[in-house]
Structure formats: structure tokens, C-alpha cells
Specification:
The protein is mostly helical. Helices cover about 50% and strands about 5% of the residues. It is built from 18 helices and six strands. The structure holds s-citryldethia Coenzyme A. S-citryldethia Coenzyme A binds next to helix 17.
């Protein structure tokens, strides 16, 4: 059989050759685009476990080897040498910027951080205890009401402005949500601060006294944003692509992605990990909760463990765990019960046959919350922090999808298992 086809043999010897496509790295794909038209059948893959939804140049993951690359650069190298805004430029434009390019990009982002003043009124309508993710998705969705006239998706300049606005304004919106939750006044961004410094300033500064940026916190946040920036066709990114494929306003597509990220099976897991660790309480309870996680009749899962793609370690979790040590030490934290509990829980789980057989390792969400908490960020804001990092990945994928001349509306089919055709019966006969 020639390398470049799979031969499908159906009932009655009904055959079809399906072309194989090979990428730069990773598994080949079987192009089934002509299957329904030729053979009148659909493929079936709930959850898209074995399905590639698109072609992309942005991010590559090898789940067996624990590899994550942004535009070909291993995430470990970017974590060590780069910054979140430099990685953002890389994801959006495909190459690392020159000195003049990054200077212009950083200046552009700093000068897009303010919100339309009217947008701040939305926060007057939320209850003080509204979940920040609900506020983030609502206010980001409202951006389509403010910028609908500067959004010609076929115009590369408009696509750039959209990406700059998403990257620059989400931290301001996120901090505004946090300030509402704690009853403090909204703090305006400052153009003399870098991305992570500005976020810390808007989160923790108060009008009553000067606020000094903690460089440990700023560096830790910048690294966390790099690690969360993109992750190929994950649930929220696929949501952004699907919403954007109809030609919907890209701000609305990003709002849809924020909603998808909120789920505890996805970006909501970092918040769920801290709640789980606090539920476990101390190391004496670890065995009990590991057994609960293995019990099929018990809905409890070890949050922050397992991954659809990584069947080995998640390279981001490894970097974040190392960073936990450094941040807690530099913050002079001697008493680190949650971090100690998390590390012990990891050791117990990784020695357990259930987790070994199912290839369940800590993922990006397992340790990140411990750092956020050490920096004074409340659990309810953890998934918001994830969204801030991932915002550039969403924007990069939307741009890639919308600029693809072959792009079409995403519209999957189904296996229908409902009632066969039947006739309407008048109510008196039911
Ligand atoms: C993120 O896709 C991405 O790239 C996501 C992400 C990104 O950067 O965008 O990496 C970010 O979302 C990380 C994942 C965060 N979620 C969690 O930590 C929640 C806990 N983990 C799981 O719910 C689960 O592992 C998923 C959702 C992450 C993956 O689910 P899959 O791929 O659909 O796997 P599955 O649910 O079919 O699990 C396979 C088996 C099952 O047992 P069997 O039915 O085969 O007997 O493993 C078991 C599951 O019951 N299992 C777990 C478990 N995760 C999977 N058992 C206990 N605890 C867990 N955490």
C-alpha cells in the first residue's frame, strides 16, 4: 500500500483510498474530507480524541515525550530566556522580534491598556461577589459593542489592533473585577510599567498609599503567562476557532473561549486544585482521597492530574513546580503547608498503579495556584490568570483561522439515535 493513502474497506468490499498528510512533526493525519460525499458515512469521535480539526503553524505538543513548542521554540527555552510580551509577539507574528520590533510592540500594548470609560459601568451592575470569570467573559464580550466598526477581519491592520486590544485590556478588566470583589476602587493602568508589573499595580495598589511592585511576583507572573500562552487545539482555543469560523466578531469569539476555559475539566482546574488541597487538609488524608479518585462510583477526581494529550509529564508542571520552590523561598515563606501537601500528594499518586496505568501526571494546573496564592491572588482569580496568559494564544489562533483562504464554518455532524419518524397526535389522544 502506497505510503500516502489509507485504504478503507467497508461492508461488501466497498473500498476507498483516504489521503495521508504529514506535518513538520507529530502524527500523520488521514484526510477524510471526501468521505461523506463519496461513501455517505461520517466518522465518529466524541471529544475529538483522535481528530485533527485544522492545520496550524503555531504550537506543537508531543504528549508522549512531554514536548511543548511555540512556533518551534521549546517552552523551556522561552521560559528561561524570554518574556511574556516577546512570546506574545512570537505567537502572533511567527518569529521572535528584533529589538526595534519588540520595543514598538511593547509600547503599543502599554498604550492600549485603558478601557473605554463606559465599560467601567458594567462593574456597577455586578453583585460584589460575582465570580471574576463571569465578569471577565461578560465585559470582554462587550468589547464587540465598542469596537464593532474597527473589525474588518480581512484587514491585517484590524487583525493586529484586535490582538493588541485583547492582550492589553484583559489585565485591566481582570483587575477591575478583583477590585469589585474586594470593594476597593478601580486602579487605572500605568504606561511606565511592564505587563506583569501593571497587573500587580492594578490588583494591589490603593489610592491611599504608594504601592511598591514586588519583582519576585512580577517575574513569577511573567513566567506563568509564558507557560499558559498557548496549547494547540485545547477546548477553549477550539471554541474561539469555532465561534470565529462563522465570521462572528472576534471579541465575542474570545468571550466564548473564556467561558469554555472556566470549566473545572479545563482552566477551572487551578481553582479546583486549591479547593481540593484545602479539602484534603493534611498529608494524613492523602491516601483516603487518592482512593476516592480511583473509585468509579465517586465523582471525586484528583484535580490538576491527567491530560488529554500529555501521557507523560506536562513540561509546564515541571517548570512551575521548580518555580514554586524559588518563589516561596524568595518570599521567605517557611510555612508552606499547601505546597508540601501537593508534593506529597504527587508522590503518592505517581506510585499508585491506577495513576501509572492511566498515565495520569500533574498538569499545568496542579502547582500554579500555589504560586498565585503565595502572591496574594485569591483562588477565585486563578482561572482569570490562566485566561490572561491564554488570551494571546486565542488571538493567534483566531488570526490564523480567519486569514486562511480555505477556512469554512465549523459544522460537525452526528450519529442520530433519537426516535424514528412518527406522526403528531392530538392532545386528547395522548
Ligand atoms: C487543562 O487540552 C489542553 O491542552 C488543556 C490545557 C491547556 O493548556 O489548554 O492543558 C489545560 O485543561 C489541563 C487539564 C486540567 N483539568 C484537570 O486537572 C481536571 C482533572 N483531570 C481530568 O478531568 C482529565 O484528566 C482531563 C479532563 C484533563 C482529561 O480527560 P480525558 O482526556 O477525556 O481523559 P478521561 O477523562 O477519559 O480519563 C481517562 C481515564 C478515565 O478512567 P477510565 O474511564 O479509563 O477508567 O483516567 C481517569 C478517568 O476516570 N482520570 C482520572 C483523572 N483524570 C482522568 N482519575 C482520577 N483523577 C483524575 N484527575
Amino acid at each position: 500500500m502506497s505510503k500516502d493513502v489509507y485504504r478503507l474497506i467497508g461492508p461488501g468490499g466497498n473500498e476507498m483510498e483516504l489521503p495521508i498528510r504529514t506535518g513538520t512533526a507529530g502524527p500523520d493525519v488521514i484526510d477524510i474530507g471526501a468521505l461523506y460525499k463519496t461513501k455517505g458515512v461520517f466518522t465518529y469521535d466524541p471529544g475529538f480524541v483522535s481528530t485533527g480539526s485544522c492545520e496550524s503553524d503555531i504550537t506543537f505538543i508531543d504528549g508522549e515525550k512531554g514536548v511543548l513548542m511555540y512556533r518551534g521554540y521549546p517552552v523551556e527555552q522561552l521560559a528561561e530566556h524570554s518574556s511574556f510580551l516577546e512570546v506574545s509577539y512570537l505567537l502572533l507574528h511567527g518569529d521572535l522580534p528584533t529589538a526595534s520590533e519588540i520595543e514598538k510592540f511593547e509600547q503599543t500594548i502599554r498604550r492600549h491598556t485603558m478601557l473605554n470609560e463606559g465599560m467601567l459601568n458594567f462593574f456597577k451592575g455586578f453583585r460584589y461577589d460575582a465570580h471574576p470569570m463571569a465578569m471577565l467573559s461578560a465585559v470582554v464580550g462587550s468589547m464587540s459593542a465598542y469596537y464593532h466598526n474597527v473589525m474588518d477581519a480581512s484587514n491585517p491592520e484590524h487583525r493586529d489592533i484586535f490582538a493588541h486590544r485583547i492582550l492589553a485590556k484583559l489585565p485591566t478588566i481582570a483587575a477591575a473585577a478583583y477590585k469589585l470583589n474586594i470593594g476597593q476602587p478601580f486602579i487605572y493602568p500605568r504606561n511606565d510599567l511592564n505587563y506583569s508589573e501593571n497587573l500587580l499595580h492594578m490588583l494591589f495598589a490603593v489610592p491611599a498609599e504608594p504601592y511598591e511592585i514586588d519583582e519576585v511576583a512580577s517575574e513569577a507572573l511573567d513566567l506563568l503567562f509564558i507557560l499558559h500562552a498557548d496549547h494547540e487545539q485545547n477546548c477553549s482555543t477550539s471554541t474561539v476557532r469555532m465561534a470565529g469560523s462563522s465570521g462572528a466578531n472576534p471579541y465575542s469569539a474570545i468571550a466564548a473561549g473564556i467561558s469554555a476555559l472556566w470549566g473545572p475539566a479545563h482552566g477551572g482546574a487551578n481553582e479546583a486544585v486549591l479547593e481540593m488541597l484545602e479539602q484534603i487538609g493534611d498529608t494524613s488524608q492523602i491516601k483516603k482521597y487518592v482512593e476516592k479518585a480511583k473509585d468509579k462510583s465517586d465523582p471525586f477526581r484528583l484535580m490538576g492530574f491527567g491530560h488529554r494529550v500529555y501521557k507523560n509529564f506536562d513540561p509546564r508542571a515541571t517548570i512551575i513546580q521548580d518555580m514554586c520552590h524559588k518563589v516561596l523561598q524568595r518570599l521567605d515563606r517557611k510555612d508552606t503547608p499547601l505546597f508540601d501537601l501537593a508534593q506529597e500528594l504527587e508522590q503518592v499518586a505517581l506510585k499508585d498503579d491506577y495513576f501509572i496505568e492511566k498515565n495520569l501526571y500533574p498538569n499545568v494546573d496542579f502547582y500554579s495556584g500555589i504560586i498565585y496564592k503565595a502572591l496574594g491572588i485569591p483562588t477565585s482569580m486563578f482561572t482569570v490568570m490562566f485566561a490572561l496568559g491564554r488570551s494571546v494564544g486565542w488571538a493567534a489562533h483566531w488570526r490564523e483561522m480567519i486569514a486562511d483562504p480555505a477556512a469554512k464554518i465549523a459544522r460537525p455532524r452526528q450519529l442520530y439515535t433519537g426516535p424514528a419518524q412518527r406522526n403528531y397526535t392530538p392532545i386528547e389522544k395522548r
